[in-house]
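Sequence in, structure out. Go.
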Amino acid sequence: MKILSIETSCDETAAAVVENGREVLSSVIASQVEEHKLYGGVVPEIASRRHAEAIVPVVKKALSDAELTIEDIDAIAVTHAPGLIGALLVGVNFAKGLSLASGKPLVPTHHLRSHIASNYISCKKLKPPFLCLVVSGGHSHIVMVEDYTKMKVIGKTRDDAAGEAFDKAARTLGMPYPGGIEMDKVAELGDDSKFDFPRPVVRDAPYDFSFSGLKTAVINLIHNMEQRGEIIPKEDICASFRKAVVELLVSNFMKAAEDYGIKTLVVAGGVSANSLLRKRLAEESEKRGFKFFKPDKSVCTDNAAMVGAQGYYEYLSGNIADLSLNAIATLPIDYR
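Output:
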């Protein structure tokens, strides 16, 4: 079964053709990163306009690269939630129009479920049930994946997401957007024991995260050093901050796995490309005898191949939309 998939939830206009939820026949991404760097982050209005300009050529190229036409496609999957509402609307409305014109079924797909599904592309043997750590710029969740379309959140951030904390700390250090990627590179050159940043604990929820205090601690440190006229040791700050974030993510994730008796662990989302996070998860999983899966870095960030992977399983579960489908800015990953 071949699915044409479309992703426009943030600042990448993407389209792909995926077969049977596992094989990527084509994947095309038009990134807006260089333009948004000028503003230190994504500007929603600009993102929406660029999606509208790029979506037709991107979809055409995805079909061309797969050497297929729309007649060869079995269904059209599109990210309908969550994300920037204006950006989502471009993809949803384009997919609705293409579905109406071609007569192909329309499959609404959740952005975070798609991130989890990126592992089905990279790890062909992976099947539910498993426990997944979903970490991105806007989300930090521990998700029990009971089946391909049945999920339960057992832990989440109470404030900032891990990716957001990385980006804001990096911006304070004067690093270009997207800051988390740059911070990971710089951290490799620093001493991660130089600064002892706090590891906040949520007392009434052992699997939940809190990154706001940690983010504030690093920002205050930088501002205080600047006010005293001191040289900012960027490498050491990045390394120490990355270590603190990763320790929080890994410790809660491992505790959840042990308490729930889950032996298969998965990581997903943009922050899953973080080199230290991948290393520590692999080490801790091996220590405990867990199986650990991670997506290739090429599908960690937003793309349409992951949408096609999840869209396949959504289609099999009967999740087919009509032309009343709308974009939704916020929607839980465990919606029914």
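Check: The radius of gyration is 20 Å. Residues 188 and 239 are 7 Å apart (CA to CA).
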